[in-house]
Each structure stands twice: as structure tokens, then as C-alpha cells.
Write the C-alpha cells for this entry.
Amino acid sequence: MKYLGLFPLAIALLLTGCQPSSAPPDDRPTVVATNTILADLTEDIGGEAIALTSILKPGDDPHVYEPVPQDTITLEQADLILYNGYNLEPALIRLMANVSGRRFAVGEEIPPLEMEYENQRVPDPHVWGNARNGIVMVEVIRDALVELAPENAEQFRTRAAALIAELEAVDSWITAQIATIPPQQRKLVTTHDAFAYYTDAYGLEMLGSLIGISTEEQPSAQTVQALSEQIRAAGIPAIFAETTINDALIRTVAQEAGVKLAAQPLYSDSTGAPGSSGDSYIKMLIANTTAIVTALGGSVTPLPGAVTPAPALAPATPSGG
């Protein structure tokens, strides 16, 4: 479990009760999560009572991921498949059409915001940006695991309750941190439209992005120019790259707009690599908020029990090439 230490006594009791006395039995139910965010939440809830596989690895982009032959085998052998839905992972969703096992579109339990994509309104799949939505995802995963392995229901419910308590604390903390940003600077510009749920929940304006909700899109020179002009007019101090997308074009936008590019890219469609500031779902939310608040002129008060990074700003024009 990757808890932050917000509730040390409860967590110590949980860990004491959940630690196996020997290697996990190999007759555990097999659970497959399509992306790293779902895998992280499922691991926290299921613990050693399930055999969990994540198809995507930290840093993988679910929008453009192309399945390999092993993915078909993994999905076919799963007792339970947990995927985001709303077409976040299109190739894997198509692959699942041929799989008969039990599956849940976890993200689709959340009423979606809608975005423009290919001249039509479609659900925005990036539901996890709002920590309250993260709580809904925890509840959906918990209930799916209880149905799958009712003999472990009490453990799943207990671990989920601890995780929900942490997310409630993180949700309140994010709101308080965003409130420190000067009102005229509460505007966000990122590489792609992955932060609408975040901005909608926490009082920011999504000023613009280089591409839309899917990273498959390719921005035109006119898009780069228009976004640069919009940033200059807004007078914001910084814009943001993302960890799963090459930063070359957003760096060009920063140069043309004459603003800083935040040194810490935002975690958008994936958790970070092990040991990074965003290597769990909760740490993603904390790292992103810290980067946003710091770069936009606010001040960060560390969340009790959490390691809160404080990224600096990178120059818009890299030195030394």
C-alpha cells in the first residue's frame, strides 16, 4: 500500500492485518487494469488478496498504446478487467470486444464533461483529475473486488475506506493551495486537454492546450501561433508540459509567448516511474498541484504526512542546446 501517512495508527493496523505470513497463494483471482492509475488504486484496495496485472506501464500513453500479442492472453485469462472507458484506451477497448470475461468501465461511473473532438461532442475520459472522482473510482473498484472475491470483502472495504479518507484530505488540500494563486493568474495551459476535471473542480480556468483530448492529434502552426498569442494576452507566468508527451512543441509555445515552462511536467494520463514525485495516484495529484501553484505564483503548504515537492521554473529557452 502506498499511503501517505495521514492516518498512521489506522494504517499501521491495516498493514499488520493485511501482511501475508508467506508468499501469496497462486489461486488468487486474477485482475487486470488497463492503465497505471487504475492499477495503483486496485493495488491499494486489493493488496495481496488479488493477482494484479497492469497492461500499461508508468509513462505509457493510453490514447496511442498499441496492444502486443501478450495483451490478448492477459485479458483472456483475467477474472476481472478494470478499464477507464470513455475511449481513453481505444485500442485496448477494441481488443476487449473479443473477451468474454467480467469487466468494468470504472471511469464511466462518473458523469462526464464533454469536449470537442473531430467536430463532435464526446465525453472527456480524464475523470481522475478531480479527487472526488477518484473516490468514486475507489468505490467502483472496491465493489467489483467484493463481487469477485466475497471472502475478502472486509479487507477490501477497510482498505478502500482508508484510501477514501486520504483522498478527501487531498481534495481539501488542493482547494486550499489553488486559492493562494493570484486570481488573475488562475489560468492553465498544458500540452493536451487532460485537466478539465481538475480545473472545473478547483477553480482554475483552462485557458488552452496545444492539442485536444487525444494525444493522437497533431497541432498546426496556426494552432501554435494562436495559443502563443492567447498566453501573451492573458499575462500568465508559466505553462506546462506533460510527462507522457514530448515537450518540444509546448516549449516552442513558451518561447513564442515569452513565458516560463514549468520545470516539473504534469502527470496526465499515467502515474510516474517508481521513485518519482508522481508514482501513485495520490502523489500525482499532490505533485501536479504543487507544480501548478508554484509556477502560477501561489504558495504551497505541505500536506501533513506527504512529501510535497517544490519544482522550480525552467527557462523558456533551454541553455546550451
User: Anything to note?
Assistant: The two ends are 41 Å apart (CA to CA). The CA atoms of residues 67 and 287 lie 29 Å apart.
